[in-house]
Amino acid sequence: MNKPTTVKKYQRRNYYIDKDFQTKFIIKFCLIVAGGSVLTAVLVYWLAQHSTTVSIIGGRVAVHTTAEYLMPLLAQTLSIELVVVALATALMTLFISHKIAGPLYRLKVSLRALGTGDLGSVRLRQGDQLKEVAASYNEAMEGLNEKVRMMKNASSLEEVKRILNTFKGL
């Protein structure tokens, strides 16, 4: 009796496809997050300078600007927030950049193969970006494959030359 075969779902093993592109992409987004955190701290500190806060510390009444009172708490909170959000941003941009870098890598490999005469198509995964670019590439490959078929089936050298003349730039 034949056992039913199960198809394994493709699991991604390498999220870094184009390390240079993806690293720069992640760093830029993390810098935006860090800049937002620093801007928030500066604005809160600047706005709090013009108000006073009264507190009781060890039975004594202390009067400080709100900025002096909030600064240690603000620094701790924003430091923790910066680390957590930067990590989340780095992971998110890694996955997003993978959906861009993967298709770019496949297109680069296909273009190199085209240089050696391979007129194959590019297949992208579901959820990948650049599907329109891959579709345009695949349409071009279909056109080239059709012209190659026409040349193979040509009955004379003149017919092959006529097909070759349809190529621009030759």
Shape field: rod-shaped
Mean pLDDT: 84
Q: Roughly what percent helix? A: 55-70%
Structural class: mainly alpha
**Integer count of domains:** 2
Q: What's the Cα radius of gyration?
A: 30 Å
- What's the number of helices? 4
* Regions with little confidence, pLDDT below 50 for 5+ residues: none
Question: What is the string of helix and strand elements?
Answer: HEEHHH
What share of residues are in beta strands?
Answer: 5-15%
Distance between the termini: 60 Å
| Side-by-side strand order of the widest sheet | 1-2
Number of strands: 2
Q: Major sheet: size, sense and barrel closure?
A: 2 strands, antiparallel
Give a structural overview.
- By secondary structure, the protein is mostly helical.
- It folds into 2 domains: 17-115, no CATH class; 119-170, no CATH class.
- It has helices at residues 19-48, 66-115, 131-153, 157-164; strands at residues 52-57, 60-65.
- A two-stranded antiparallel ribbon has the order 1-2.
- The longest helix has 50 residues, at 66-115.
- The relative contact order is 0.09.
